[in-house]
């Protein structure tokens, strides 16, 4: 009788398989949920991103208003340091109050607040004062005035702070060359913002408004012209270097209408060619 021992066959047999791991159903469920939530949060983040400029459509109707002349402007002085934005000298001058009343009456004639409206002024003194005048004339409750604390600050002009208003023409010459050129800096806390810097701010503002409201009327009140010209250029798809073409006078009111875009004239030099307005450098 042939006897086969375990020792004689062990070298030729494959090793035993490893023991099966217990499947943890709870772990699998949590993993699946985490992956699902990641996908959802990613899509939500995309949906809540910055408004694309120019936007394909707007959920609300908008009126842009430049506050009336400030005391500083009546003195012919550039003042853009945010430290002074709530000071008395940043408030409306006597002429600026009249300009703001005219703006309020113009908004009323345009029917801006017939079905109520939201008024978003910069917290800068003259803007908020203008907003109060607009609310009074149009019968809007003060609870519909929403002060904006940073996105609507006057454009910081750096080393031009304290100079005569005429000096701002030098800034606009640089703007026409590139939207990324900043005014020279200064060490008193005044920002030195390029057109592109302001464009980011006003795009953030519009993103908030388009998310927060739907089929409403919003009146944006800015202390200066540049916030509004850069915003309007972005909304209508105009080369940002040409924002000055849309200049607002103190107390001016403008309804946002994509049909109001000026005819685009491509600069003769290829150096300044803009292929993707409003983002042109």
UniProtKB/TrEMBL annotation:
Region listing for Disordered, in residue ranges: 1-21
InterPro entries: His_Pase_superF_clade-1, His_PPase_superfam
Protein name: Phosphoglycerate mutase
Lineage: Eukaryota, Viridiplantae, Streptophyta, Embryophyta, Tracheophyta
